[in-house]
Amino acid sequence: MSYAIRAEGLVRRFGETTALAGVDLGVRAGTVFGLLGPNGAGKTTAVRVLATLLRPDAGTATVAGYDVFRQAHQVRQVIGLTGQYASVDETLTGTENLLLIGRLLGYSRGDARARARQLLAEFHLSDAADRAAKTYSGGMRRRLDLAASLVGRPRVLFLDEPTTGLDPRSRTELWGIVRDLVGSGVTVLLTTQYLEEADQLADEIAVIDHGRVIAQGTSEELKAKVGGQALVVRPADPGDLAMVVGVLREVAGAEPELNQHTATVPVSGGDVLPAVVRRLEDADVTIAELALRGASLDEVFLSLTGHRAEDGTELAEVPA
Amino acid sequence: MTTISAPAPVPTRRVSPLVGIRHTMTLAWRSLVQIKHNPMELLDLSIQPLMFVLLFTYVFGGAIADSPTDYLRFMLPGIMVQNALFATMTTGFGLNTDLTKGVFDRLRSLPIARWAPLAGRILADTVKQAWSIALLLGIGMVLGFRIGTGPLGVLGAFALLLAFSLAAAWISVLVGVLVSEPDKVQIFGFMVIFPLTFTSNVFVPTESMPGWLQAWVKVNPVSTLADALRGLLVSGPESGPIVTSLLWGLGIAVVFAPLAVRAVMRRV
Asked: Do A65 and B15 touch (CB under 8 A)?
């Protein structure tokens, strides 16, 4: 198996704060890797280290087989960086921004112009090509940002919270672009505080909190890890709820959670469901709803970190 | 799956100096092409010195010297120094904007010479600086300033002022890296450059000031530079102030360039 990104024991401190407290990562070539965590978890620091912008205090990392520190120049030739902190020049037009990158990458004037035109068309920015980037909407600016990181046809792409602050439509659009890129063989490392985003895009997810990777795997694996399933029961008559709670407590061996007219209890074995059904039948309780469902990534996050992932709604209102 | 560590084309190992210079030119283009969209920026650079020239010439000129034109001839070289110092702040302002907006990170993630982003900015700012010196001199001449030397003297004045500005730009870079937002660079500029340029012989003859102030005015590099420019533009070059000005510039660069470079390395 070949890894596009490997990191071992990355440590980075800023004064008293430890942003990375020994991070190990392995991203397989041609996949999307999601680095999931709340604000201040160390996601951006990890990306900055891997993109050669920041030296770690300890640890090693390679990108596309090149050492991030000793062969930084080679690494820069195969990566693209987009996100919170890598941005476009707002005073330049869309075309000029891409021309700038193309020329810096050694393209001839004509090639740089052709590449700029092609990317602007691909990202639906042709109409805005000659307008200053500061007049762009948040979604347009992110697309231009992403286009800028693709000028050199990178094999490894870092997306640092690419959809933070975007409206749902722009977000879905960006997801589509990322899927296309991966389809063309690019490896993507994506940081996000949106569980849904990691669930939607990432082949593999690392949950990061306080500078440490606290869990890693596919979203299915992570969900299973937390104990998997919950049994939800809603009696037809709300008056039977007390009885339902009693049965669930006894059979599942855990304290059920009450939510208006339903009772939910975590279950592990497969024999709980038939036992519950039998007992409720014996007690003459009519069941309106009975469901066994997998844990959501939200619950995974909660059980791993002990706190909920930051709610993104507040951020979404900030103009990007 | 094939190993990804044997890619084609094979990445190069380092940037040759020549390629680095090309990166610098491209990045200088980036700073200058903005003027195309916002031509007012060229005036922004010059509006304050123009106001100063007009106000001082016509409001104070008659009171300080025999006539506004006489005063203009005395003051214009000094205003050029003041203007050049203010203009160095654009370097720190632009650098801080790049740092806070993330443009600097994007540039640093590209396989370009490490020094090119800073060099490109300084090169572009030197071009703007040359423009604003020329504009000020042109306006001055329209108002009645006369060059008493010749083309070589004017060339020398440009060269000296640009050289000194390049040195002073390191202070601007240092400030630009240390402050948290672009506007603070300008606040710094006003707080330091205003008193510095007014406690000099730019606007009034040194002899008219109290003794304790005269002592400072005489060693103020702004006075020295203004004297050097008066010589180069009006009364004939004098080696004393020119050499002293160059030494000041060298001293500033020797102290502030390493500090600024270290601050840039730390910030990023």
From this structure: no
